[in-house]
Amino acid sequence: GCEAGAAGPGCEAGAAGPGCEAGAAGLGCGEPGAGREAKAPSEAVSAEDSGLDHKCLFCKIGNEKEAVELLHLDDQFACFKDVRPGAPHHYLVVPRNHIGNCKTLKKEHVSTVEKMVEVGKSVLQQKGFSDLADVRLGFHWPPFCSMAHLHLHVLAPASRMGFLSRMVYKSNSYWFITVDQLIERLKSLPGDSKS
């Protein structure tokens, strides 16, 4: 995985390799300028700073501490382009505070996942994509995710995904879980949540 700064296949934040999502060839994990558009990081320190993992690239991106073009930013979520797109529109929606991968979620996270979906669909519509029936929304299931920060893949049109992308983002496979299946799993977990 890439969390510790290693660069290898599937690394979402570092060197070149299949599935590299937030980096570019030859640059280490989280290295400034790793294939991202220049944008001055925010000088302000977030009031939610205590919920961040300061070593996590997606925490940095979501809190404007990395030079990445944000397509959406609110108090809870950020959305940005996947630098190795699997479809003409391929975005990642991340919580601004650190939340582990989808396997760490609990029943009370159902509303978080639903809000991430709303953000992803909203960004698609802002980018001129309106056929929401032709969208793939989901998460890589551990151990097939290389970032330990929850991130929703938003791919559209799903009908135009290439062969490799159809495999990497295959619905309800051992390695990729759709939003609907994840929500169903979370709702079946024990807990007091009303979600």
Automatic annotation (TrEMBL):
Residues 57-166 form the HIT domain. Belongs to the HINT family. PANTHER family: ADENOSINE 5'-MONOPHOSPHORAMIDASE HINT3, APRATAXIN-RELATED. It catalyses: adenosine 5'-phosphoramidate + H2O = NH4(+) + AMP. Keywords: Hydrolase, Nucleotide-binding. Pfam families: DcpS_C. GO terms for molecular function: hydrolase activity; nucleotide binding. The active site is at 151 (tele-amp-histidine intermediate). This is Adenosine 5'-monophosphoramidase HINT3. It comes from Callorhinchus milii. A motif (Histidine triad motif) lies at residues 149-153.
